[in-house]
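FAQ

Q: What does a record look like?
A: Structure on top, sequence underneath. For example:
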């Protein structure tokens, strides 16, 4: 149900009243000082690009770092949180976050590295069944990954990679159009790889319906969840997703370039036909230090690991996952819908007389906490700079003309939303 807002709700005082009644968890995070405007802190709406730092991250990381000074190499087994088993500290909360079994998830590498490792296993073109289906507005790294995988298999990426586009005059894909394509052309599709939440438009894909359609067509179905993990509830195991990958530095607040996550459905974990690039950390821990030349993995997603895990890069993830476990995705999703709905209503007033269009779906079920604005004229990057330096509002720009604003439910406020909308009224002139 879409909430109705009164005129009083949409004032600065109304925003502050809502913050008092629905405060979120801003107190758990460091909020940068404003670089312009009349408020001490920034209105931070760029958590879809990089999340804010939890206040507990520094102390937690220093605790782990001190063990290196105290123990040297013996910290692998004798630290308070032994380094050799440190990744296991992330497993349960990661699985809960994405709706998986603990054996189906692993934290390792970075997002595109994980995509490549998973594509080695799940993109196996045969004859006419060689196409990879992605969305036309996929994040560029996904496009590079699938094109290079097609070339690796001796295929022409311009023919093997199918880029699905919205209908003329529309900004987002329709689920029925994706399902229809898979029904018509599915016998030629080897792999479907889409963004769970599209990075550019903020559209939340119908992951279960598309996964079902792809698998019914005989294709493997994977998801890039960079903008979905920590943003929307996920049930990867129940939905039958073959594999997925995501980063931990956007909504999961684990720091720039943080170690990423991967999911492999349990039905594949003990499948001897699955090919995999292998490294020593993917070995069964019970035999890992026997240093044998033959790989002996467990039937877990851990088998896709390659190298010794970077403990100090994992520490911020452990801290952040603890916050998500404490607050819970159902509560975060509910607040996200309230906060994003509030921003949407404010933007309705702003865009009514200005050359700006919100291209994110209005249906809360079809979006996360991001609203994307298309400018009819001018540079999105230039507008983002003015928002920051003149009004203390941080958003994210994708040139030439998309401004992305994400009221992240953990730490964003109604007042942040009001400040962004108010700033736009001062920076974007009304249409004559």
């Amino acid at each position: 149900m879409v909430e109705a807002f009164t005129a009083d709700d949409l004032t600065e005082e109304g925003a502050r009243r809502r913050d008092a009644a629905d405060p979120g968890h801003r107190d758990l995070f460091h909020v940068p000082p404003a670089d312009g405007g009349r408020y001490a802190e920034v209105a931070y709406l760029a958590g879809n690009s990089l999340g804010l730092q939890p206040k507990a991250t520094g102390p937690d990381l220093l605790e782990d770092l001190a063990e290196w000074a105290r123990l040297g190499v013996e910290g692998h087994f004798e630290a308070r949180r032994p380094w050799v088993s440190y990744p296991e500290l992330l497993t349960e909360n990661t699985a809960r976050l994405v709706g998986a079994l603990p054996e189906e998830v692993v934290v390792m590498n970075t997002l595109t590295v994980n995509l490549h490792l998973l594509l080695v296993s799940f993109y196996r073109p045969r004859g006419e069944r060689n196409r990879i289906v992605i969305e036309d507005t996929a994040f560029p790294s996904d496009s590079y990954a699938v094109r290079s995988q097609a070339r690796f298999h001796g295929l022409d990426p311009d023919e093997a990679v199918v880029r699905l586009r919205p209908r003329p005059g529309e900004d987002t894909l329709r689920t029925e159009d994706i399902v229809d394509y898979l029904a018509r052309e599915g016998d030629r599709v080897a792999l479907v790889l889409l963004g769970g939440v599209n990075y550019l438009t903020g559209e939340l894909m119908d992951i279960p319906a598309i996964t079902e359609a792809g698998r019914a067509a005989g294709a493997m179905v994977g998801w890039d969840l960079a903008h979905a993990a920590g943003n929307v509830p996920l049930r990867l195991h129940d939905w039958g997703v073959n594999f997925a990958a995501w980063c931990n530095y956007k909504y999961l607040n684990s720091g720039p370039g943080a170690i990423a996550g991967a999911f492999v459905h349990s039905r594949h974990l003990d499948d001897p036909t699955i090919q995999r690039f292998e490294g020593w950390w993917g070995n069964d821990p019970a035999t890992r230090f026997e240093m044998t030349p033959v790989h002996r993995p467990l039937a877990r997603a851990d088998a896709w690991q390659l190298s010794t895990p970077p403990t100090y890069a994992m520490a911020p993830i452990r801290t952040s996952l603890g916050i998500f476990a404490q607050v819970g995705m159902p509560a975060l999703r509910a607040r996200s819908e309230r906060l994003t709905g509030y921003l949407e209503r404010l933007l309705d007033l702003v865009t009514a007389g200005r050359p700006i269009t919100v291209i994110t779906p209005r249906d809360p079920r079809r979006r996360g906490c991001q609203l994307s604005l298309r400018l009819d004229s001018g540079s999105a990057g230039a507008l983002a700079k003015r928002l920051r330096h003149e009004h203390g509002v941080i958003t994210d720009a994708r040139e030439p003309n998309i401004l992305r604003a994400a009221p992240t439910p953990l730490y964003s406020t109604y007042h942040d939303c009001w400040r962004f909308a108010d700033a736009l009224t001062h920076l974007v002139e009304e249409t004559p």
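Q: Is there anything notable about this one?
A: The longest strand covers residues 189-195.
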